[in-house]
Amino acid sequence: MQVSEYDYELPDELIAQMPADKRENSRMLVLNRKNHTIEHKHFYDIVDLLDENTLLVLNNTKVLPARLYGTKETGARIEVFLLESKGGKEWSCLIKPSKRIKPDTLIKISDELQVRAIKRLEEDGEWLVEMIYEGDLFEILHKVGNIPLPPYIERKLQTDEIKNFDMERYQTVYAKDEGSVAAPTAGLHFTKEILKKLEEKGVETAYVTLNVGLGTFRPVKCDRIEDHKMHSETFEISEETAEIINRAKANGKKLVAVGTTTVRTLETAFRQFGCIKACKSASELFIYPPYEFKVIDGLITNFHLPKSTLLMLVSALAGKDFIFEAYKEAVKDRYRFFSYGDCMFII
What we know:
Helices cover 23% and strands 28% of the residues. The chain has helices spanning 46-49, 137-144, 160-169, 192-200, 239-250, 260-273, 309-318, 320-332, and strands at residues 27-32, 37-42, 54-59, 61-63, 67-71, 77-85, 90-96, 106-110, 113-120, 126-132, 177-180, 204-210, 233-237, 254-258, 279-283, 298-302, 343-346. β8 and β9 (113-120) form a beta hairpin. α7 packs across α8 (320-332).
């Protein structure tokens, strides 16, 4: 299967630069796989579309202020993008411009934080670095770091007001466990009020944690889909969540995943253990047609980039032709795409 088969044309003006005025006011395209129908809704309609026979599973990961700006001793400006803790004070990261960096180069971020380059890692220009600081690193990052918005969201003017806005809106309202460098964006549409209304209707909810890395969003560079390898992302399923999921499935409830990261967590766990059980593990699962889903029955998800692994995942669930029909309809109807954009509900 060729990656080029998953390309589509998208006008630049449909790439959302800001979220909807209110989270729940995002538009929502509802795809019914059984009836092959497409309906135009708003996200607040999700309350009417879910009932007591549904289990909603969400990813409660929290986005780190992982983008840091600093200077070398020469005064040259350097960007450090933290990717993953490697234990102790060592992290993997991306450094721009990477050509100016050598082992032992010191980058000053602030009076509280410096970054020392240790060695260049083999894959994709990543570096292993040592974080030099005293106290709590996460507290320092919240002072000096920036929310790592995707490159298609442009922020030419980084005022404190804009930084604080993104710090709030590029997080889900239920974000809990800090560790991601990108938001599980399907969850950005939920509000505490909507979650409460769903609870009152008898809709069960459960949470998993998958720390979203750049691998989820990196472009597929090979020609054949089968040649692409996913980057590993860590996830955790608690005892409580495993129990809720297994009970719901035993009782015939439909499991609706919020976001592709939740899908990959649940489907990976099932592939590894033959069931859903409490675990801390990692996922390198690449889902593309004709994948057979073992756990999920429905999906709430945003609109994804052309040729992306995420577009392939939703095509595996709803069928490539149906997904591309829906995307064509969304472009025609001026839906807003990608992280801060509108969403789909595949049932």
